[in-house]
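anyone seen this seq b4? input:
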Amino acid sequence: MQYKLIRSRRKTISIQVGQDGILVVRAPLYSGIPQIEGFILEKMPWIEKQKRLQQEKTLKLSSVKPMTPEQFSRLKKIAKGLASQRIAYYAPMLGVSDRLGKVTVRCQKTKWGSCTSEGNISINCLLALAPQQVFDSVIVHELCHLLEMNHSKRFYYHVLRVFPEYQKWNRWLKENGAMLHAMVPRSQR
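predicted toks r here
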């Protein structure tokens, strides 16, 4: 089996199946090839399962019909209104209304939201296609950065205090985010 080997100052061997189906192995500097390949052999059932899941996901994504440019334009307006509404709802709960800067809605390829140290929040318009709880989970996440500009335990304490189901909806986004991206009109990619 072919794989890409990345050696570093880590203590354990890990594997991941990339989106392209290529196996990536991360190993300590001192690990020998027999040890690495033994690890891969031991993990073959997991590797095969991951490859099968990726093939299913690729097939599923190929059946998604992109929006028209008009639908996409409407989606951005809907997302802007929804972002304003949900921020107005959650900001007082977190006590961050006075720290809030400008709110923008864009279509980003790699981020669902972001928050700057100036309090400016950006939300991905594709979130308006997801369940409301997913949209809210990103809003709360970004608002909590106005309290903690990191992903520490204290940051997640604030997130979970206001939105206890955060992990559930964050998982939904990780599992279905590619589907949302597949709906972007080809002219906008």
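The first strand starts at residue 4 and ends at 8. The radius of gyration is 20 Å. kinda curious what u guys think
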